[in-house]
Design a protein that fits this description.
Elements lengths: L10 H33 L3 H12 L2 H12 L3 H26 L2 E2 L2 H24 L1 E2 L1 H28 L12 H33 L4 H12 L2 H12 L3 H26 L2 E2 L8 H17 L3 E2 L1 H21 L1
Antiparallel strand pairs: 1-4, 2-3
Helix pairs in contact: 1-2, 1-7, 1-9, 2-10, 3-4, 3-10, 4-9, 4-10, 4-11, 4-12, 5-10, 5-11, 6-10, 7-8, 7-9, 9-10
Length: about 325
């Protein structure tokens, strides 16, 4: 996502940039979670839906920018690899860290609605990758499917919230919704900008230390596009807002598989490199299956299950690092 700059920058500058980027991400994550929870209450929807839509899709902006740029530059491997790699990282890294900090509750009704969509989106993404080509018409179909899901999920959640009399009070503080939305937008912008600074500083630091470009791409850039989700998950878990963590991961993966894949193909049809279908898509499918299994056994993801997911991600990175 972020190319290395000419090494006219000093090690001290890189360290300060790392610190500043981290502070921005943490402050942005705090504002994002506060604004999202308040916005959900005012709109009469659950934090899960806000996590799936506004936060989940917003934190996927780096993946979207990376995929479109890679496709336009004639690098389909980066575009497709970023979608698959981000989906894997969201489950095995982001969800794992969130669960280790605080067990993540799974809403039965929402999981019954969103879980099948997540698995279907994963299988569709997997099938397209194994087919080898994504044209504009298929990209349009993927993006249309995302829009239909969003509308259906929002309407369903609105109906359920109305039954429990949690509807927003329109006559109480009429400027509350714009203020909360502004807090969400500010927090999201800070998280994305902080992540970009952090990734660029990490690339520069790796180059200063003489680490190869392959290692930088595998670790710093791949994980870097998932930093907004990680920052949001950490803050939400510490504030005991597990619905936001769960919704963020589900929303990001659905958006990656349908929205990012679809939007990228609409801009530039993609020829998928065959080697991606050999291993990574199966890891993506396995991670998604683990997410759904863990979520439906006890209706939460425990710290022990979070540890299992994290070990899986370390093994996944280790296998790729060993192949370099």
């Amino acid at each position: 996502m972020v190319p290395a700059r000419p090494l006219a920058i000093s090690g001290a500058d890189v360290i300060w940039q790392l610190i500043f980027g981290l502070v921005l991400m943490l402050a942005g994550g705090e504002a994002l979670v506060r604004g999202a929870v308040a916005l959900a209450e005012r709109l009469g929807v659950s934090p899960l839906v806000i996590g799936v839509t506004l936060i989940g899709f917003g934190t996927s902006a780096p993946e979207l920018a990376t995929c479109i740029d890679a496709a336009l530059r004639g690098a389909p491997g980066i575009a497709v690899g970023n979608v698959v790699g981000s989906n894997i990282a969201n489950v095995l890294l982001i969800l794992a860290v969130g669960a280790l900090l605080y067990p993540i509750a799974a809403n039965r009704r929402a999981l019954g609605r969103d879980g099948p969509v997540l698995m279907a989106a994963t299988l569709i993404c997997m099938g397209i990758i194994m087919h080898g080509h994504v044209g504009r018409w298929l990209g349009a179909a993927l993006f249309t499917g995302l829009v239909i899901y969003l509308v259906a999920a929002a309407l369903d959640d609105r109906r359920q919230m109305a039954k429990t009399e949690n509807q927003a009070k329109a006559d109480d503080r009429p400027f509350a919704i714009p203020l909360h939305l502004g807090l969400v937008v500010f927090g999201l912008a800070a998280v994305l900008f902080g992540a970009d600074l952090l990734v660029q500083a990490a690339v520069d630091l790796a180059a200063l230390l003489g680490v190869s470009d392959a290692v930088i791409g595998l670790t710093v850039v791949a994980i870097g596009t998932s930093l907004p989700e990680l920052a949001t998950a950490v803050i939400a878990s510490l504030k005991r807002q597990s619905e936001l963590v769960f919704g963020n991961v589900i929303g990001s993966n659905i958006f990656n598989s349908l929205g990012i894949f679809g939007a990228t193909a609409l801009v530039q049809p993609i020829d998928v490199p065959g080697e991606i279908a050999g291993f990574d898509v199966w890891v993506m499918l396995g991670a998604t299956a683990l997410l759904l299994i863990f979520a439906t056994t006890g209706w939460r993801i425990s710290r022990r299950e979070g540890a299992v997911l994290l070990v899986g991600y370390i093994a996944f990175i280790g296998l790729h690092a060993g192949a370099i």
